[in-house]
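Dear colleague,

Thank you for sharing your sequence with our group. We've completed the structure prediction you requested, and as agreed, I am returning the results in plain text so they can be pasted directly into your records. Please verify that the sequence below matches your submission; if there's any discrepancy, let me know and we will rerun it promptly.
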Amino acid sequence: MLLLQSLKNLGQNLGFNLVHQQNLVYVTCWEDPRLDRVALNLQSDDTVLVITSAGCNALEYALDEPKQIYAVDVNPKQNALLELKIAAIRELDFEQFFQLFGRGKLPNFQEIYTRKLRSHLSVTSQAYWDKQGNKFFSGNRSFYFRGTTGNFALAVNYYIDRILKIRPSIEEILNATTPAERQEIYCRDIEPVFWKDWFSSLLNSDFVLWMLGVPVQQRQQMELYLEGSVANFIRQRCEQVFLELPIQDNYFWRVFLQGEYSLDCCPEYLKEENFQRLKLGLVDRIQVKTSTITNFLESCQEKISRFVLLDHMDWLSQSSQEKLQQE
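Please find the predicted structure tokens below.
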């Protein structure tokens, strides 16, 4: 029995690595930095270590003016994204910057990248954006529908637009101002058609969780406590978001369902006054490092006073116990 479970875990880990190998996984951060900033209570003498992910939250922490932020990620493509954001803050005006990372599209990206941004990037990041930049930002498809999680968002939007054809109701619920309005729209137009059996089966699959960046270890922890399936858990959480919680400033779901942010519903780093603060020097407090956490800490000469480690220890907990213990 233990052997079978070990083989299953090995297969799941190999599948997860296959989906994510050589890929940009996260095109935006899904952790709410407003809560982080309360918890961290950053001061001018703090030095922060944060997992890079899509870089959004590292930029947001910089607005609290800590001494230094180290954005560390073992995936060089995640660091390439943050490097591109930092270069764009330094070199572009706000309108161009918002077009690039607010709308997820910049028709003349190649020209601007070559002339203004490329020289600010590391050699590894140059190689990545030389190959992917024009494809990711110049076409009709938003950057936020790229990468592993972005491709899943694109698939969900295809389901909404082409199969269910309920886009007007989705837009209506995103713009509704009261929970009662949202509940009426959801119960009338969305709930009766959205959670089809085959779609729930898909959400229950390892493949979909891999696309969302959820490692095997997290699924196993979820299943210890869930009443019902993972798909049912996802459904409950979605219903809580759309029926119970405020939606007007929920930029996480807006970008997932629309492929872009709006000026009044976006991360703080995409607001003009904060963009200007970052441009005036705060962005220079961020250093980007491609490394494991352990290797970075072994080489770092500074004392780190604040850590934002996300869920990376889950990724190590079965496949790399030795590395986890070292860390």
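Summary note from our side: The chain has a mean pLDDT of 90.

Kind regards,
the structure core
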